[in-house]
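Customer ticket, subject: "Can you confirm the structure for Glycerol-3-phosphate dehydrogenase?"

Message body: Hello, I'm evaluating your service for our small team and ran a test protein. I'd like someone to confirm that this is what the system normally returns, since I don't have a reference to compare against.
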Amino acid sequence: MNACPRQDILDLFVIGGGINGTGIANDAAGRGLRVALSEQRDLASATSSASSKLIHGGLRYLEHREFRLVREALHEREVLLRKAPHIVWPLRFILPHQPHLRPAWMIRAGLFLYDHLSQRDNLPASRSLRFGADSPLQPSIKRGFEYSDCWVDDARLVILNAMQAREKGADIQVGSRCIGAKAEDGIWHITLEDVTTGKRQTRHARALVNAAGPWVENVVREGVQRDSRYGVRMIQGSHIVVPRLNGDERAYILQNRDRRIVFVLPYQQDYSLIGTTDVRYQGDPAQVSASRQEIDYLLEVVNQHFTHPLTHQDVIATFSGVRPLCDDESADPSAMTRDYTLDLDARDAPLLSVFGGKITTYRKLAEAALEQLSPYFQDIGEAWTAGAVLPGGDIDSREAFAMQLVRDYPFLGEARARRFASSYGSLCLRFLHDTTHEAQLGDTFGAGLTQAEVDYLVRDEWARSTDDILWRRTKLGLRLDAAQQERLTTYLERHRREHAA
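Agent reply: Thanks for trying us out. I re-ran your input and got the following:
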């Protein structure tokens, strides 16, 4: 294998553009390392955009005595509220109590522990509830509990970490597949293939991070041809979107008789997001989709709790993801650990593989990864991400920033100003700067999506397709009809041809 010039050798190469990969790349770049990342499809295109979109301690993990994980996750709620106030915000959860659940005193004790395992600076404590005639729940459900967790725009959390990594000098390559890597004389030689053109290139790095999510085992065994000390149990989680079930902004956590948890979450003003399932999955993670049985299951659990009955005709959309959990040989998918495992193989050149993990604790996972890799880099900097605001998060609050947008750009209207504040924060000023009227934003595609916003997403946020824009970056896929989506697709294809010429 030919030697490469020293100036072409990266410190760290990351495979996988989900939350763990971008989180590690961001942390490493901010510590002064030369970093590159490759993602074969779009950022957050797999597991990281198919979550329940929660930053939470994991109340149900207390049942499995995962106290360290819960404590760390509760601490990270507070950190992420400060780091990303535009895409992370508090959410109150209602836990209805039914006779098949644990005794009320035991639930109160669990919630007390949840309130006090880690310091709370911004979130109110739990409390008991009594339901009256105005409750959307079945009349037989008379009491329950309320506690705090947080909502997150999961895909945007990934993209913001990638953007910050780029600001720190990282090279983020989207649509670039790693087809193999070989270590020789302490250097990784990584072969990449452009998924559009088929063109190949070789990158060189002192250390390799395998954050390929559901494909992590494939990368170890086939990509680098090493034995994996850990296995992955792929667990499918599916969600459905239905018309809004409750009139306020609170979420519901429903515990079924099989002890599985189903969330009913306020979603995009007009909808409720319901999920998730826990089903063993085998096959290509890129092809996962909600099954009829999963949809039936979610509808049944909701109908056992809410007075308004749901049918398949109410399901507006579905999405599914595969959670790559570290295989702890548990027979119950719901009981499998959501904690992360880092496997460092230092033969020839260091390879760090990431198994499992939660979106809530991605930042701590990244710090743990850099701690394991730090002995291989002489001048690596200190941990820094806890106090660093993510791009666009330099605002007082979403509400205050939305009001500022309405004052400064009255043509936006309140609904679009709220969407910009909740998706971009101050980043939206990149495409609103110096505009004084709607026409300056260019063509419209529907639901307030304009050419200026699309061009920004393509230029600054690696968007390439209609799905990239509508389902991961703006969440407007529920708003645009087929004709409007086709117009957007045509525009993106023309834009790509013009810039390729």
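A couple of notes from the result: Residues 239 and 319 are 5 Å apart (CA to CA). The first strand starts at residue 9 and ends at 15. Feel free to reply with more questions.
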